[in-house]
Each structure stands twice: as C-alpha cells, then as structure tokens.
Design goal:
54% helix; alpha+beta
Length: 65
C-alpha cells in the first residue's frame, strides 16, 4: 500500500508500530504536501522505518538454557 506526493511515493510501514504515523501522513497529504513541516514529518517517518528495520535485523537471538 502507498500514496503519492509531490516528491514521490510513501509506502506503508513494514512494522505496524508506524501505521498510525503513516495514516496521519496520508490523511493530510493533500493539504500539507510541499510545506516544510510535512516534508520534515516524512523524513522522520522514513528514518523511523529504517531504524526499525535495522533493529529487527540486528536483534540478538535469545536462547533458553
């Protein structure tokens, strides 16, 4: 799932923790797209998405003893 904006598409998050943030960006895309605040919000969203992917990839394996 994704939606388009002036500077490209925003894709739905792989981690459900970011779904409310994605929904907020999608809801206000038409009225805020292009303004500095919205662009910063998109950058934060994309940064969090990347951080969560890296965290999941680097998650240590826990073994029960």
């Amino acid at each position: 799932m994704y939606f388009n904006r002036k500077k490209g598409a925003i894709f739905s998050p792989e981690d459900e923790k970011l779904l409310p943030f994605y929904n907020l960006l999608e809801k206000y895309q038409k009225s805020l797209d292009g303004c500095e605040f919205y662009e910063e919000m998109v950058e934060v969203y994309e940064s969090l998405e990347l951080d969560l992917k890296e965290e999941k990839t680097n998650e240590p394996t826990i073994r029960a003893v």
